[in-house]
Amino acid sequence: MIEIKGLCKSFEGRPILKDISTKFEKGKTNLIIGQSGSGKTVLLKSIVGLLDIDEGEILYNGEDVSHLSDKKRKSLRQDIGMVFQGGALFDSLTVEENVRFPLDMFTKKTDKEKVDRVKFCLDRVDIKGANDLYPAEISGGMRKRVAIARAIVLNPKYLFCDEPNSGLDPMTSILIDNLINQITQDLDITTIINTHDMNSVMEIGDNILFISHGEKWWEGNKNEILYTSNEKLNDFVFASPLYREMRTLKKQELKDEQS
């Protein structure tokens, strides 16, 4: 579990995050949503440790990261997997070499152990027959799956995904959502996803944090969001007729399940 308490972050005196507190639970998909410029990317980077915070605490399983020794901080970094918005694969490396890269950098495994682990991770994301291909030779959806395979190759305790569905068609986005959700449950890890994809919110949002102008405005789950009276959240999530219709359908599905 990851917990943040009273997190504040400013750039050149301009507040970006204002006193945000929440918990991201283990074994669940935790989503951060908000408009462009709301501060969600800054929040994610702060939690990962890519940005220093001005005030507050970030606790990984109860330990404040600002108080960790260099040795523990290094160990924590190896417990973190990251899926970047564009995939961030190395163009000059093959699919297999991309997934193997963290193993070469951070472990002393034998060559056979590395080969076996890479194969396991590629199988886990349903990549077959593409080991020797380069990122430019595979589709956008496949690149995202390879990025997920690389993110889990060190068997992380925490998985961070920044707009994993960006640039993907709706069907591929659903596949990526389901894959991340299944991996989260199977590996029992803490997953945090930055997203603007409302289908992700409605389908895999075990915990949802909505921020606006750097402040926490709402938190709940994918069922509670159907019935929220928070006007700012409703204006953001259900602004289009498509998502209003989706909300109606989801409410009916939920009623049918409960009856």
UniProtKB/TrEMBL annotation:
<dbReference type="GO" id="GO:0016887">
    <property type="term" value="F:ATP hydrolysis activity"/>
</dbReference>
<dbReference type="InterPro" id="IPR003439">
    <property type="entry name" value="ABC_transporter-like_ATP-bd"/>
</dbReference>
<dbReference type="Pfam" id="PF00005">
    <property type="entry name" value="ABC_tran"/>
</dbReference>
<dbReference type="InterPro" id="IPR027417">
    <property type="entry name" value="P-loop_NTPase"/>
</dbReference>
<dbReference type="InterPro" id="IPR003593">
    <property type="entry name" value="AAA+_ATPase"/>
</dbReference>
<dbReference type="GO" id="GO:0005524">
    <property type="term" value="F:ATP binding"/>
</dbReference>
<protein>
    <submittedName>
        <fullName>ABC transporter ATP-binding protein</fullName>
    </submittedName>
</protein>
<keyword id="KW-0547">Nucleotide-binding</keyword>
<feature type="domain" description="ABC transporter">
    <location>
        <begin position="2"/>
        <end position="238"/>
    </location>
</feature>
<keyword id="KW-0067">ATP-binding</keyword>
<keyword id="KW-0813">Transport</keyword>
<dbReference type="InterPro" id="IPR017871">
    <property type="entry name" value="ABC_transporter-like_CS"/>
</dbReference>
